[in-house]
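Protocol step 4 of 5: obtain the predicted structure for the target chain.
Materials: sequence only (see below). No template structures provided, no constraints applied. The aim of this step is simply to have a reference model before the mutagenesis design in step 5. Sequence pasted as it appears in the construct record:
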Amino acid sequence: MSSQHAAPIHDADASAPDRLLAPALEAVRAGALLALDPGEELRIDTKRDRNDVVTQIDRGVEALIAERLAPTGYPLLGEEGHTVDSWRGRVWVLDPIDGTLNYVAVHRHWAISLALVEDGTPVLGIVADPVDDRLYTAVAGRGARTGRLFDESGVGGRPLPLIQDATVADGVVIAHVHALACLGHLPEIVRSSRGLRCYGAAALELVEVAAGRAGSLVHPRLQPWDVAAGALICRETGAAVTRLDGTRVDVREPGSLVAGTPSAHAEMIERLVRG
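Step 4 output (structure tokens):
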């Protein structure tokens, strides 16, 4: 339903995070369909460097999702231009296409990441992988779920089980080249693991940890829209998520991130900081 015709959500019960999941999913699905079939040739611009790219579809998906979420009455912070005056109360946080270089170059491994953040704490998170028709959702205190993005028969699919604890040696490590370059002990840590992976979309990398397919993840610096949804999904499956120094991640601020099983996370922090 377009925000031009949808009635605003006012009462407290209807605006509970779990009640907002359905309209949020509807908005994400609409954005995914636009990204999968934009109906026009991509116009590619660069931001910081030639590998930091943006297209008119990134902007179009953000505008569409913002319109669909307008009836909730909460402001939206988006990577491609939507700003907020304050983090007070509830704020939607959106990366319309996380992994735009993948979207442009390899046509997979990109995601839509949407979170509802309340006074700095994510209370609802959605990570959608449109190409593989995968969906990950979480509501704070209610666990995480996974299913098919385009299956509208239920909200969020089946429960995502709690992760099995494991050490760094038992799992793969997700990290990028710049992390290997700036974190002196990381190459040695990777060599002691099952191997290195890099997907180029932080939201998808976080749900790899949440789903137990990766033991740990390290990023020197991420933005709020990169982490808000995925961090909640990780926490709801029992994964630990902190800064590199072990302090709490405030999703309102850009910064480093380490996520993993409890044991792998603790070991990663210890070895990165103390060697």
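Step 4 remarks: The chain has a mean pLDDT of 92. Residues 178 and 220 are 8 Å apart (CA to CA).
Proceed to step 5.
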